[in-house]
Amino acid sequence: MNLHGIILKGNPYKEILEPKKCDCPFELRGLAIPPDGVMWGLMVKCSFHNHETAKYLDGHEYPSRLKSVEKQFVVEMAGSTKPREILNVLKERDSANTTGIQSIYNTIARQKVAQRGGLNPTQHVLDQLISRRYLHAFMINPATNEITDIVWVHPKSLDLYINFPTVLIIDATYKTNEYRIPLLEVVGITSTMQTYSLMFAYLANEKSDRLTWALGTLKNLMVKKEALMPSVFVSDRDLALMKAIGTCFPMTRHILCIWHINQNVVKYCSPILGSEMPRFYASWHSLIKSSTPESYQQKWHILIGEFKSYPRATKYLWETWLQPYKERFVDAWLDTCMHLGSNSSQRAESAHARLKLYLGDTMLSLDTSFAKIHKMLRIQFGSIQKSFERSLNIQRHKQRTDSIFSAVICLISLEALELIDEQLQYANTASPYIAGYCNCTIKVAHGLPCMHDLANYRSLCIPIPLSDIDSHWTRLCMHADRSNDDQPRSDRTSEVVELLQGMDPSTRDNMITRIIDMTDPSHSTIRSPAYNTEHRGRPAGKSEQSRRRIPSILQSYTSGSRGASNSSPDASVTIPATTSRLRKDKPTSSPMSDPFIQELPGAYQDFISHIVDVQADGHCGFRAIAAQIGYGEDNWAQVRMDLIEEIQTNMELYNVLYPENNYANTLLHSLAWFAPMAPQAYWMDSMSLGVVIASRYNLVLHTFDTYHSGCFTHLPLRSHPVPVKNRREIAIARIRENHFVQVFLRHHYPVPPTPLWWRQHVSIEARGWVDSYIVRMNLWSEIMGGGPGTSGGEFGGDID
C-alpha cells in the first residue's frame, strides 16, 4: 500500500485515508466501533493501484518519520552537534533508517519553539537572563523598539573578578550573529593563569559612546559588589576604546597590545627600509625591551643614528608610537605595574577563537548565541575549578622535596610555583647580597620573589615566606565573600511609587514599560536588533585565514635558531625553541642582508640566523652574555660579579691555566668595574674569559670574530657533561674591532674548535663535553679550509 496522507470527511467517526498527488484510486475507509469508539475497523473501498509498489522507503513521509526515542536523541544532541552529524549517528545505529536531514531541522526547530514557551527570540533571551540570574542591561531604539546594545555578566564571572581584579583584557570580535554587530568581550586571569570571561556585549557599533556605556555598566556592577577596580587594562590601539577606558577607569593602567604595534610597524616600515628591515626590527625590538628609561634613551639615539638615512621610518616610530604611548608598551614603564606578563591581547583573541568554536555559525540569532555562550561558560567554570583543586591538592616532586617551598606549597597556585622554580634555576648563580636592591621585573610584574631573593633564602636556609607572594596567587576559589549579600534589604517600593507619581504621564508610561521589559519579558514589546549593513569583516578579495595567530616578523626571521632558552626570566629577545607554526617541509630562508652578519667569515654567514645588538658602553660583552643566559642585557653587573666569584673560588685552577704574569689577577682587575661607562682596560677579553663563562654557567659558549682564526668553542672545565638536549648553547661575536653582539645560529651549525688550553687543563669528568661536537668541528675545518691553529692564540686583545 502506498499511503501518503489522511483526509477527514464529514462524520467524526469516519476517516478517509487516500493517497496524495498521484491520483491513485486505492481507498481505505476507517470506522470507529461504537459505543466508545476505542476500536476501529478498516474497510477496503478500492484495492486497485495505478503504480508499482515502492522498492525503497527513502523520501516517503510516513516511514521516514523519527521515532520517539530518535526525537529525544536529536533534542539532546542539538545543542552541541551539527544536524548532519546527528543524522549520521542515527543511520549508523539503524541501517534501515530512512530519515532525511529536513526531519532533523524540523525537530530542532519545534524544540526551540517549545523551549521559548510562546515567547519571541528577544523575549526568550531576556527571560533566560533573569531566570539564570545574569546581571544585564540593554538599550533600545525608541522609534523602532529594537534592542541596540545589550550587556550581560554571569554571577560566577563577577565572583571570579572580585577574586582576581588585577588584569582585564578587552577586545571585540565579528561574524558571530545574524545582525552583523560586533561582540565585545572582557576577560581576566586567575591565579592558575586560566582565562575567565567577565563580560559580553552586543553593540550597535564601536563608537566611544557605546563603548563607554558598556564599560560604565560593568563598572557599576563592580561598585555594587564593592569590588576593587582593575589594576591594568590591555587592549589594542582603538582610539574609541581607549577613550572609553579612560572615561570609565581613569586610575587604571592601560597597556597597548605589543603584537598589534609590531604588526603596524612592520607594515609601515617594510616598504621604506627594504632589506634593512630585519636589522631595523631587531633594533626596535631591543628598544621596546629597555629595562630603564636611561637605557631606552640611549637605544633610541643609537637607532636614530644607525637609520638616519630613513627619516620617514624613525619619524613614524616617534610620532605614532613612542611620543604618545611609550609608557603603555615599553618595558621600562610597563614593568612598573603588576601585569602578569600580559602585554598583548592574545588571551582575548584566544577567548574569541574558543567562543566561535562553540557558536559554530556566523548567522546565529540573539537567543541561540546566548544559549551557546552560556554552555561555554559552564565548561569554563568547571575547568577553572579543576585548576584550583589541583593547586590545593597536588604536590609536585621537585617542590615537595625542596625545603625552600615548604611554607607555600598547596597554598599558592601550581603556576606560581612553576614561575618561582624558573627563577630558582638562576638562583645558584645569583648574588644573595643584592636581594631587595635589584630591579628584577618578576617582583613587580608578577608579584613573586626573584632569583636574588631566592639566593638569599638559600643562603639563610629558610623557606620562601608566604608574605613574599602577592595575594593574587594565594586565591584558589571560585566564590567571593558574599557576607554583604546576606544583610537585610530595605523595602523601597514606596520610593519607586513616589518617583513614578512625580513624573509626567508619557515619561511614567515609558518607565513602567521598561520595568515590565526587565521583570516580565513575556509582556515585553522589545524586538531583536536591526541588521547592520556596515559591519566590519575581512576585506574583499582576502582569502580565508586561520584563527591561529600569525608569527611575528622576528619569529619568522629566527625560525630554527638556537642559542637562547625560551624560559629565561628576563631575556631581552624571545627566540622560539621550535618552528611548529611553520610547515616542516618549508625550505630554510636565505640569510638576511645584515651588515653585522656580513662582518663575520663569509663561509659561515649562511649558518647565522640573526644578530641582536647591545648597548655600546664598554660593558657590551657582558651585556651580550647577560642577555643570552637570561639575566637581561641591563644586568651586566651581575655577570661581572659572577665571573669574579668564579675566578676567586677556583684561583688555583686559573693560576695554572694562566701562568704568565699573574694573569688571573689581571682578569679580576678587568672585571671589577661597575660604573656606567667602562674604560678600555675593563672591556671583555673573550679569548681568556670564554672558559670562565662556560665553567661558571655550565654551558657551551661560541665566540666569533671577523677572522675565522679568532672563532672558538668554550666548554666547562670541571663539571660532568649535560645531556645534549638539555644543554644551553649561546654565541657572541666581536665585530667592528671592539664591539660585542648576540649571535643566534641555525640548526646543525658547524662548531668552531676548542682552545688548546682547554684540552690541556680540562678535568677527567668534563672531557665528555666535546664528544658530541667532533663531527661538526670537522665540518668547520672543511668549510673554513683547515680552521684556526690549535695553539689558541695570544691572550689579551682588549675588546669593548
Indicate the proportion of strand residues.
5-15%
User: What is the C-level CATH assignment of the largest domain?
Assistant: Alpha Beta
> How far from one another are the termini?
100 Å
Q: Tell me the CATH architecture of the largest domain.
A: Alpha-Beta Complex
The geometry reads as elongated
Give the strand order of the largest sheet, numbering strands 1, 2, ... along the chain: 5-6-9-8-7-10-11
Low-confidence stretches: 1-19, 538-593, 787-800
Radius of gyration, taken over Cα atoms and rounded to an integer in Å: 36 Å
Classify the fold: give the CATH topology of the largest domain. Cathepsin B, Chain A
Assign the structural class, choosing from mainly alpha, mainly beta, alpha/beta, alpha+beta, or little secondary structure: alpha+beta
- In DSSP terms, counting alpha (H) and pi (I) runs of 4 or more, how many helices? 29
Mean pLDDT: 82
Oligomer: single chain
Helix content: 40-55%
How many DSSP E strands?
17
Tell me the major beta sheet.
7 strands, mixed
Write down the domain tally: 6
Biased composition (Polar residues): 521-531, 553-580
Protein name: OTU domain-containing protein
Organism: Actinidia rufa
InterPro entries: MULE_transposase_dom, OTU_dom, Zinc_finger_SWIM
Q: What does this protein structure show overall?
A:
The strands form 3 sheets. A 7-stranded mixed β-sheet has the order 5-6-9-8-7-10-11, with helices on both faces. The protein is 40% helix and 12% strand. It has 800 residues and is of the alpha+beta class. Residues 517-596 are annotated as: Disordered. It holds the Pfam family MULE. It comes from Actinidia rufa. Residues 521-531, 553-580 have a biased composition (Polar residues).
